[in-house]
Design a protein that fits this description.
single chain; alpha/beta; 11 helices; 12 strands; about 40% helix; binds 3-isopropylmalic acid; binds manganese (II) ion
């Protein structure tokens, strides 16, 4: 049966458009081999539009995006726009307004990819981070007192609601049950210092965990998680954590899986829409040179297909990417791939067709 998905596309800033077009090239190759079709709806959101019009995310665009089956995002971040404006006005605003309360970030080292970890191989680095995506320190609550005076006070609050924590933890247990290789879920927290926030997280983890007797429950403080991600990454299967810790440990995760050129993520509302992106950023210095690695964007498309329930097609992309990485590309680093951005996409397409 023919199935057509409505995809909102936000190429965004810097290298975003280049990598998004490779992602779309690969999705279309999947379409040629199957009954799956995609209708793309492009949105020119990002730094250039902000500089021209002063708006980041018009209500009409948000409304339309909320109706899409999924959203495909390139990158946000413009050298001429003050840091914080696009991040809060566009990226965080989409996460919050569309209630994309899960950030799913796989950390998987593919064979043939260099990791900075000595003596670790693809067998050792393969876990998923489930990051809470709408609360915590990102909620934006707090304020100044006596700003600009010697007595200035700045407060930034971590907001953790029972509902928000519970739905995230529940998603992580379900994800672990369905996709975990070892059926082990680790809560990453800081119960020894954040005695209110992570008290709630730990209690909720234990209570929800009672419903999942088949899942091994594990806890580690965030600093220890950082240590073990380097020393013993093979211990992890699925990690669940709050917004800020999730932000930090997934950059570390991206590095051990071969760098920003390969790390993809999903911002997911399990009951609504979801947005998939390469997590690397807009890389202004590489823009327009055909040197940026599009693998992360292609893998964002792969995650999108999985999310839409098209796991067979997602499998084609993953397999073709693995072949491209192992047989064709010299490196995952921008400018050292042994080929240009669009050639990487061409190789992936060829492997999908040949498979
Ligand atoms: C990420 C990014 C964002 C975050 C920034 C750009 C606001 O670092 O997606 O991890 O902190 O969540
Ligand atoms: Mn980040």
């Amino acid at each position: 049966m023919k199935k057509t998905y409505q995809i909102g596309v936000i190429p965004g800033d810097g290298t975003g458009p280049e990598v998004v077009s490779e992602g779309i090239k690969v999705l279309n190759a999947v379409g040629e081999k199957s009954e799956i079709r995609f209708d793309y709806h492009h949105y020119d959101l990002g730094g250039d539009r902000y500089l021209k019009t002063g708006d980041t995310l018009p209500a009409s665009a948000l409304d339309e995006l909320s109706e899409q089956d999924a959203i495909f995002l390139g990158a946000i971040g413009h050298p001429d726009v003050k840091p914080g404006i696009l991040e809060t006005g566009l990226l965080l605003s989409m996460r919050f307004s569309l209630d994309l309360y899960i950030s799913l970030r796989p950390v998987k080292l593919y064979p043939g990819v260099d990791t900075p970890l000595k003596n670790k191989t693809a067998a050792d680095i393969d876990f998923d981070v489930v990051r809470e995506n709408t609360e915590g320190l990102y909620a934006g609550t707090g304020g100044f007192l006596k700003k600009g005076t010697p007595d200035e006070v700045a407060v930034q609050e971590s907001v953790n609601t029972r509902k928000g924590v519970e739905r995230c933890i529940r998603y992580a247990f379900e994800h672990c049950r369905k996709f975990g290789r070892r059926k082990k879920l680790t809560l990453c927290g800081k119960t020894n210092v954040l005695t209110y926030a992570f008290d709630l997280w730990e209690r909720t983890f234990n209570e929800v965990g009672d419903e999942y007797p088949d899942i091994e429950k594990d806890y580690a403080h965030v600093d220890a998680i950082c240590m073990w991600m380097v020393k013993n990454p093979e211990w992890f299967d699925v990690i669940v954590t709050d917004n800020m810790f999730g932000d930090i440990i997934t950059d570390l995760g991206a590095m051990i899986q071969g760098g920003m050129g390969i790390a993809a993520g999903g911002n997911i509302n399990p009951e609504g829409t979801a947005m998939f992106e390469p997590i690397g950023g807009s890389a202004p210095k590489y823009t327009g040179q055909d040197v940026i690695n599009p693998v992360a964007a292609i893998m964002a498309g792969q995650m999108m297909l999985n999310h839409l329930g098209e796991s067979e097609a997602a499998g084609w992309i993953e397999k073709a990417v693995m072949t491209t990485i192992k047989d064709d590309m010299a490196s995952m680093d921008a400018g050292r791939m042994g080929m240009g951005t669009s050639e990487v996409g061409d190789y992936v397409v060829t492997h999908i067709r040949d498979d």
